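Troubleshooting log. The previous structure file for this entry was overwritten by mistake, so regenerating from the original sequence record. Sequence copied from the archived sheet and checked twice against the printout by T.R.
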Amino acid sequence: MEEALKGTFPVDVVKNIFSNISSINTFHSQFLLPDLEKRMGEWESTPRLGDILQKLTPFLKMYAEYVKNFDKAMELLKQWTDRSLQFKAIIQDIQSQEACGCLTLQHHMLEPVQRVPRYEMLLKDYLKKLPQDDPDHQDAEKSLNIIAMAATHSNSAIRKSENLKKLLEIYEMLGEEEDIVNASNEFIKEGHILKLAARNTSAMERYLFLFNNMLLYCVPKFSLGGPKYTVRTRIGIEGMKVLGTTNEDYPHTFQVSGKERTLELQAFRKTIEIFHQKNETFKSASKDVLVSTAELGKRAPRWIRDNEVTMCMKCKESFNALTRRRHHCRACGYVVCWKCSDNKVALEYDSNKINKVCKDCYSILTGEEKAEDKKKGILEIEAAQFSGSSIMCGFLQYCEKNKPWGKVWCLIPEKEALVLYLYGAPQVSQTPCGREGMIGPHSSTNRAVHSNHH
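Regenerated output below.
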């Protein structure tokens, strides 16, 4: 601010970058911290925190302004660092101070965004260990409700800040030479890869960084201060193609083809082993969950985990947060939608209490006939029919415009080599069912797809 007042750059720039951070600092240094320190000193006579927090937590709402302006502040900081050498020198001087702990200014600016959710987490832990009849319990619960309301304003900014933090880490690994710290850039995946040379087909170690808009193909370089890389090629996602290739000497190879360059790559052996190990785990989990008809309702099932499923395991409809939420059948453990779990029956293993069950288990346990399943469409052929005779198959991540990334099972059948089939996964296994769609030379479907295991 002193430099701004000298006329080096506009005062508004500093105010817009740091928002109301001075007010937040004043609140903590003059009110919250002194009160907490005083209470710690008299803890034996007054072992409580809820009264202090209930009085002061309403002021945490001031974080909402900082969080709201966070993205704009990051963009403005980057613009002025690139535009003004004097501004950049001031920032570097600040970062070189011992108090900064060798971290960038952007790293320190992330801390206020994450502060309120941390308070919420600490207070939840405090309440867990506090007896229900403790005099401080009521005040602590009221404080938690206030903090939770303040934390909701920070949640979306935290997701963005975590992505920005990762971008900063990559920026430092690339020697601070690549322009990747941008609010529009979203980090997706990174990992070691082998590059096959065109002349002698020898495999050379490389490293990939995948973002929502580009792929960075990097070469590792020697460094004593953590991993460092040099960018060899930047390939845009638009128009990029990933194709499986056949190489007897080098299995598990594939080709990444973009406008800027085409690369022939080979997955690391360790990556391949992890991929196969995961699939074996999913297959065994599928077997473990099955409960025989004779034991149905008499024995508690193992529940399928929510993150193993992308659609209802009965009707194959995709889940969403509002109209089709996840429910567990208490008889078989499958994850189903509300329509397929709109049945109740007494279960012997749960002392004959009434429980929610899927329609199939309801039919078995009550003896009533099943409702007829809907007729399968032309795009609902099961993946199992193709997986054994495919050129390439595996799990991929894909997204459509303005929708989150989701896991699908993809394969290229031998008889239709120019078509990529996408299957939503009722359960993550080698042969999920439920056709989502296909992408081919005559298809109008346009989906962004990237590999989840290469």
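Confidence is low (pLDDT under 50) at residues 373-381, 427-454. Archived copy saved in two places this time.
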